[in-house]
Amino acid sequence: MPNTTLPESPSRRRFVGVAAAAVAAGSLSQLAFADGNQAITDIAAPAGGDKTALRPLRIHVPESQLSDLRRRIKATRWPDREIVNDDSQGVPLATIQTLAQHWATDYDWRKCEAKLNALPNFVTEIDGLDIHFIHVRSKHENAMPLIVTHGWPGSVIEQLKIIDPLTNPTAHGASASDAFHLVIPSLPGYGFSGKPTTIGWGPERTARAWVLLMKRLGYAKFAAQGGDLGGIVANVMAKQAPPELLGIHVNFPATIPPDIAKALQVNDPPPASLSADERLAYDQLSALSKRRAYALEQGTRPQTLYGLADSPIALASWLLDHPDGNGQPAAALTSAVFGRTINGHASGDVTLNDVLDDITLYWLTNTGVSAARFYWESHFNFYAAADVSVPAAVSAFPGENYQAPKSWTERAYHNLIYYNRPEKGGHFAAWEQPQIFAEEVRAGLRPLRT
């Protein structure tokens, strides 16, 4: 075998010398890493060392990390402007620069931190992984326990505006009989939950963990709710059908029949037999298939996304480039960034600060890559008919990736107890239309109370 050892070059000798000197002096980069690893939460020590105990969590991000975030944003090296006059090449430069300007100069993370700390936050270890969750009990008797799961590119911040309407319905024009005890967890690898260090934390394992979490909180019976990935977790939980699960409500239903899925896969024109609602869904799904490059990358090569950990702007643009039924980036988020209605689709209740709260949480917890791995751990079509028999309620919002027809929904959810098409709201329904969303959850799960 020939000798493949290369002679040491002068430039390599200089590098080794500099590296050795840096190690001897205490490398500046090591100091930077240490600063970035400062704890951003305080978690109560478990009694008797039992990590499965419910441990209160409080958030406090060191000011040095917020200063570093602003510095990195201001130091961004920008690409050239897109060469089209629309968003067909990705998040437009004007969009991300508008967000960056506010993020670096006017945005205040402490306001979000205070909102989160005003709620009961906890951590408990489940199956070897720390799971973070918000737990808000209603003051009303006979409130229904409900676990609500966020999606990607979201977090528990998506659900903050629905907490009071669901736990305190009488303050929002509803009946005390519609009250819920809410449990809002962070998915594995997201937010303040632990980052899995072994494979296997996909929707199935997460669904089982959520059942254990609810039992650990003392809830013998409960319902589940979800949108986006949270809807997938709810569907999987319904498929597993644990005896504790009363039923589910999803605003990201999985309803596509096998024949429709096959036609979409080969880019066939819509079948002539489709109804008007089915044709709308088919056209939306056909457009969606061209907008899921992010999902393909996260589902196959999540570790390659190093920019999500290194650059706030890389992270922000990646998280923004998520479609809804009105386009990509999601119309509501784009309108929120500019503070005005863009292309005829308003942001609803979502503000630029809401969007930045969510992105900043990803940045501070360094969960861009660990969150992406959830796609790599998922091994089935998120849109394929759920095929579940547990009681299910579905809200088909008009701005969702696709508006599921009732005909498909009835075939996918064999015990459909509620179906509605709200007038407003999209993929981020709890953010965009929290009042309508709360009304949908109440109405959808009301049959389970009898």
- The SSE order reads HHEEHHHEEEHEHEHEHHHHHHHHEHEHH
By CATH, the architecture is named 3-Layer(aba) Sandwich
Average pLDDT, all residues: 92
CATH superfamily label? Alpha/Beta hydrolase fold, catalytic domain
Class inferred from helices and paired strands = alpha/beta
Family: Belongs to the peptidase S33 family.
Domain Epoxide hydrolase N-terminal: 55-158
Keywords: Aromatic hydrocarbons catabolism, Hydrolase, Signal
Protein name: Pimeloyl-ACP methyl ester carboxylesterase
Overall description:
It comes from Paraburkholderia bryophila. The active site is at residues 228, 375, 427. Residues 1-34 form the signal peptide. Keywords: Aromatic hydrocarbons catabolism, Hydrolase, Signal. 41% of the residues lie in helices and 12% in strands. It has one domain (109-449): Alpha/Beta hydrolase fold, catalytic domain (Rossmann fold, 3-Layer(aba) Sandwich). The protein starts with 9 loop residues before the first helix and ends in a 5-residue tail after the last helix. The protein is of the alpha/beta class and 450 residues long. The chain has helices at 10-25, 28-36, 63-74, 93-105, 109-117, 163-167, 203-216, 229-240, 258-265, 276-288, 293-300, 307-310, 312-320, 331-338, 352-365, 368-376, 406-412, 429-432, 434-445, and strands at residues 41-43, 55-59, 121-126, 129-136, 144-149, 180-185, 222-226, 245-250, 392-395, 416-420. Residues 1-35 have low confidence and may be disordered. Helix 3 (63-74) packs antiparallel against helix 4, helix 7 (203-216) crosses helix 8 and helix 11 (293-300) packs across helix 16.
